[in-house]
């Protein structure tokens, strides 16, 4: 019987996911949104009746970690860094999801092959 083949296939795919996971470094969960605000100062440009010019952009990061919702402002100079971290987290999630999928297939295959 040559039943080790599928297991090897799963192992190889999982090994390649691990390599990609090791390459990930900085990451953070969440999403970044851009906002323009109106302030409370009387006569401010943001409340100009003809051509209001709102303040901003402000970048707000929202995320949930361990069940807690968090929100923080991100400085414009940090937006590029934060976007890269957010992208890395998405990649992390995608890779671990694939890993779990393969692990399930492999485990089920092994259960069936022993029956
Ligand atoms: Zn204003």
Care to describe what's here?
This protein has 115 residues and is of the alpha+beta class. It has one domain (5-114). The chain contains two helices and three strands; from the N terminus they run αβββα. It has helices at residues 5-23, 79-114; strands at 31-37, 55-65, 68-74. It has a three-stranded antiparallel beta sheet, covered by helices on one side. A hairpin with a 2-residue loop joins strand 2 (55-65) and strand 3. Helix 1 runs antiparallel to helix 2 (79-114). The two termini are 14 Å apart. The mean pLDDT is 94. The structure holds zinc ion (ZN).
Taking all residues together, what is the mean pLDDT?
Answer: 94
Poorly predicted runs: none
Order of helices and strands: HEEEH
Total separate domains: 1
Count every beta strand, where a strand is a DSSP E run of 2 or more residues.
3
Radius of gyration, CA atoms, in whole angstroms:
24 Å
How far apart lie the N and C ends? Answer: 14 Å
Bound molecules: zinc ion
Report the portion of residues in β strands: 15-25%
Tell me the overall shape: rod-shaped
In spatial order, strands of the major sheet run 1-2-3
The total count of helices amounts to 2
Q: What's the main sheet like?
A: 3 strands, antiparallel
* Share of helical residues: 40-55%
Helix- and strand-based class? alpha+beta
